[in-house]
Amino acid sequence: MNIANFIQFxxxxxxxxxxxxxxxxxxxxxxxxxxxxxxxxxxIAATIAILLTVVGAxxxxxxxxxxxxxxxxxxxxxxxxxxxxxxxxWIVPFVERVERYPISRQTYTMARxxxxxxxxxxxxxxxxxxxxxxIFVDASVIYAIDPAKVLDIHRTWQKRYDxxxxxxxxxxxxxxxxxxxxxxxxxxxxxxxMSSLITENLRKKLAENGLILVDFVMxxxxxxxxxxxxxxxxxIAEQQALQAKFVVEQKRQEAEQARQVAQGQADAAVIxxxxxxxxxxxxxxxxxxxxxxxxxxxxxxxxxLQYEYIQRLSPNISVMLLPNDNPFLLPLPTP
Length: 335
Fold this sequence. Notes:
Oligomer: single chain
Number of helices: 8
Radius of gyration: 56 Å
């Protein structure tokens, strides 16, 4: 409770005391009892009540979130040239009065849902796009009164600035901007651009009338039932096309994987055959070199072969009998 309200409260109490004293005086007078002392109290109570009433009517406390317009018959135009800022002020009692205007942020919502907007029922902005489609825009306008233009607001709009200024201007600008875009652009690719254009146009229009636009919020965009069904069918077709494309791509990847597996197996077979051929070639070269070496040794030692033959017959045979008519298996060396 601020001091102005406190003084008015005290004035009310003294007026109640004044009324009570009058009743008490009447009752004592009816019983023929003395009322002189009560009459003195009555005069004192009346004096204090009148004084407090006058002071309370002259003191005005403006809250930090308010600005006050002093309506008076003492100034040209019926208003003081400067609004009252936050704090305690004095006005001429019973000659001047104060109209309070909030300078904090306010929100005006236009929504399709009955209980969300400032007006009960469907209050969304019905608009037509460049290709003739009907859409419904839910939006909120966040704004504030310019403290320097409170007098203009009071002179032009009074307390009707939200319903007679913010609402019609916002609805008109939304319709004008939406008409510049096709429905696909409004709901997807150009939605941010459209919202920005609405914000700029609305900011200029409100500023011309003493309001500051804080933000324009495009809450939602809805369609007619027929167009919503067509969009749903289109999305289903697109999903089916994407699914078919996915299946084709999956099959292609499976075929490519099988081809790569076959290619890998073929490459492995080639590598194995090549390795086997190289091994056989190396073995053949080694055998050839071994035979060449043996041939060289035999040329240098012709009796080595007979020696090796005899050595391999049997290590236990010391005497061997042969028929007298059989030749020697190997020619014996002659002296």
